[in-house]
Amino acid sequence: DHELDERTLHVARQLRDGAPSAIRLTKYALANWLRAAGPLFDVSTALEFLGFAGEEVREGLAAFRERRRPRFDPDCPI
Angle CA(10)–CA(13)–CA(18) in degrees, nearest 5? Predict the structure, then answer.
């Protein structure tokens, strides 16, 4: 939408006209944070995908389709 495009250009121009060292240091700090936190995202994503393949997903979907409350196993292994 036009308003979003205008706002995006406004922010981009502010960054372009900003102090180069401040922008460089901010990018450096963000890159370091991402390098440190990246492995956590990998583990989180892997665990999420493991959950997608589990019995709870099948039961949740079945309950949704049948318009009933799900009956989850309280003794699940995880």
Answer: 125
Q: 17-78, what's its fold? A: Lyase 2-enoyl-coa Hydratase; Chain  A, domain 2 (1.10.12)
CA distance 22 to 5: 25
Per-residue model confidence as pLDDT tens digits over 11-70: 999 998 999 999 999 999 999 988 888 888 888 888 888 888 888 999 999 999 999 999
Name the pTM for this structure. Answer: 0.45
Helix, strand, coil percentages, rounded to 5, for the chain: 80, 0, 20
